[in-house]
Design goal:
The chain has 276 residues and is an alpha/beta fold. The chain is 34% helix and 11% strand. The chain folds into 2 domains: 3-226, Flavodoxin domain (Rossmann fold), CATH 3.40.50.360; 227-276, no CATH class. It contains 9 helices and 6 strands, in the order E-H-E-H-H-H-E-H-E-H-H-E-E-H-H.
Length: 276
């Protein structure tokens, strides 16, 4: 059975967010999966990226974080907590991120997890870079072949996060996480599991949320992921701009999803990638 890592960020173990995480752990283990949890608050995860992330700095006089990250990852001189999280990611067949929506994004402690764990040579700076191939990213990379899903309780109401909602669509709000943070190093991204109006949830609402989450987890490895366009899949020109004729009728970030009217060779290539 596939291995699953859950990265969780909430300071209160009795919160709704933590309760949903517990439901996910129990359900996945009942399905036969091995599950590991990185509970960032319980771990007292260090969220700040700084010189302490490197045990043997290449340049002790000036911190250039990208350069030090590359040197440390290649040389095995990252701090132990960073290396441990990278090992968990490589072990996992799917990664789930459990966090509340705070100010249109994830809690700072989880952002710090990305900042530190997604090192140069591990999650970016991977693959050949030339005029025709801009590295292994956006559908390729170290984490390719894994699935990712966000579990995100939200205090606001669902209409506020719809296409015409005042807060903007949830898909656009999660774009930096889904496309930039998870698809970039190669993972296939499942539609998010969002629970709305959580500060007013009653017992019936909780039972519905649990039922819906369990149903979503049943399809973690069989449901279709979000059909993002692969960077090196023929969708973009040499300047990494979407080629003419693609994304017709779609605006904003939606143009970077494969469309039914795309050329047949792109549709076939996307189906092969998502099925692999």
């Amino acid at each position: 059975m596939p291995n699953i890592l859950i990265v969780h960020a909430h300071p209160e173990p009795k919160s709704l967010t933590s309760a949903l995480k517990d439901v996910a752990v129990e359900t996945l283990r009942e399905q036969g999966h091995e599950v590991k949890v990185s509970d960032l608050y319980a771990m007292k995860w260090k969220a700040v990226a700084d010189e302490a992330d490197f045990t043997e700095p290449n340049d002790p006089d000036r911190l250039i974080y990208v350069a030090e990250s590359k040197y440390a990852y290649a040389g095995g001189t990252q701090s132990a907590d960073i290396a441990a999280e990278q090992e968990k990611l490589l072990w996992a067949d799917a990664v789930m991120f459990s966090f509340p929506m705070w100010w249109f994004g994830m809690p700072a402690i989880m952002k710090g997890w990305f900042d530190r764990v997604f090192a140069y040579g591990f999650a970016y700076g991977v693959g050949e870079h030339n005029d025709k191939h801009w590295g292994d990213r956006y559908g390729e990379g170290t984490l390719a072949g894994r699935r990712a899903m966000v579990i995100v309780p939200i205090g606001g109401r669902a209409p506020h996060y719809s296409e015409r909602g005042v807060n903007g669509s949830l898909e656009d709000i999660l774009w930096p996480i889904h496309h930039g943070g998870l698809f970039y190093p190669g993972m296939d991204i499942m539609p998010p599991f969002a629970v709305y109006h959580t500060d007013r949830m009653d017992e019936a609402g909780w039972h519905d949320a649990v039922k819906d989450l369990k149903q979503r987890l049943q399809g973690l490895f069989t449901d279709a992921p979000i059909p993002y366009r692969a960077q090196n899949g023929g969708h973009y020109d040499a300047q990494q701009r979407l080629k003419p004729g693609l994304g017709q009728g779609a605006g904003g970030t939606a143009m970077h999803l494969v469309q039914s009217g795309d050329p047949e060779e792109i549709l076939r290539g996307t189906v092969r990638r998502l099925a692999s």
